Amino acid sequence: MDVVTRIRREVERDALRARNGIKLAAGVPRPGVGLTPKDVVWQRDRAQLWRYRNDAVTWSPPVILVGSLVSHSYILDLSPGNSFIEQLTAAGFDVFLLDWGVADERDAGNTLESYVDEYLPAALARACEVSGVRQLNVVGYCLGGTLLLLSAAHHPDLPVRSLATMATPVDFRQMPFAELSHLNVDWVLDETGNVPAAVIRQGFRLLTPTADAVQYANLLENLWKDDYVVAYQAMTHWIGDHVPFPGAAARQIGEMLLQENGMVEGTVRLGGEAVTLADLRYPLLNVLASRDNIVPPAAARPILGLVGSTDTEELVLDAGHIGLVVGRTAAKVTIPTIIDFLQRRSEQAELRHSHAG
């Protein structure tokens, strides 16, 4: 590239940086998130089961995604062209997502049993009912994967054909906040009886104190790219958009999973019954992010050694916690690998239409 061409290119980029910078400073509306068309097919309290519309379902059984309790599920459907769910539907899957909603004072008494023994089995049963199948492929992200593991271990009759976990903690002694295990969860509960979203947001900021500076530096470098600015707006909105954590479940996680390290030690008890991952025998894919500051690989890697499954796979990617499900690595590696895992445990179905139930 000659000097004149380089100068012209930088002048053009500076003009675009100025334009986009003015838009951001002026508070241009954020792009929409969670835009893939869907229908609510089940609801209990704040939890909802969504089914995504797809006129080209070519694989069976359906896929059901389960997100974390402390963040919005739209990270799995962030924006057009940057969506886990969009790629799954494009690959020919009938896709469901279990969204936990936003906890309020009515949910403060929700325990791990509420999610593991009630919501999850009911949502899976409903997904089977509306899609006319007997089994599902299930995928859990972050704490959603932890809930799935416990549910699948406690209920060996769940309609599950295969299970994939992404950035899912089981060895809580390896989590960044393990040193706070002695703290009383009740100290941070608000008047609703839940851990406030602001406390959760601040906790994540403390785990990655330089993240905001890095994001701003990257934004300045890429401010001339319209698609980067749109993705930046959607991502930063999600990062700051946490939801309250039900107090009773937070208390159990602090005691059973963090203080006792119950999933590793095999001491978890739900509804008065012992729950051990050795009772989980479904085919399992465990996806880790090598640069994950929220769920370090050491916290997620033990999964395959704890479950009773004989058909297991592990995928370690050079990505961060969020980069597993959105962005370039997700689009080119994570999601295609999960799609391959799911397709190998599915059958080609006669082309049919997906209808909400």
Question: How would you describe this protein?
Answer:
This protein has helices at residues 3-25, 84-90, 112-131, 143-154, 197-207, 211-222, 226-239, 247-259, 262-265, 297-300, 303-306, 328-343; strands at residues 38-44, 47-52, 57-60, 63-66, 95-99, 136-141, 160-166, 269-270, 273-274, 284-289, 312-317, 347-352. A hairpin with a 2-residue loop joins strand 1 (38-44) and strand 2 (47-52). The protein has 12 helices and 12 strands. With 357 residues, it is an alpha/beta fold. The chain is 39% helix and 17% strand.
Give me a quick take on this structure.
The chain is α/β, with parallel strands linked by helices and 357 residues long.
In DSSP terms (H or I, runs of 4 or more residues), the helix count works out at 12
Number of strands: 12
Radius of gyration: 21 Å
Strand numbers in spatial order across the main sheet? 1-2-5-4-6-7-10-11
Structural class: alpha/beta
**Terminal Cα separation, in Å?**
58 Å
How helix-rich are the residues, as a percent range?
A: 25-40%
Low-pLDDT stretches are none
What shape does the CA trace take? Answer: globular
Strand proportion, as a percent range, falls in: 15-25%
How confident is the prediction overall: mean pLDDT? 85
Q: Biggest sheet, in brief?
A: 8 strands, mixed
SSE ordering: HEEEEHEHEHEHHHHHEEEHHEHE
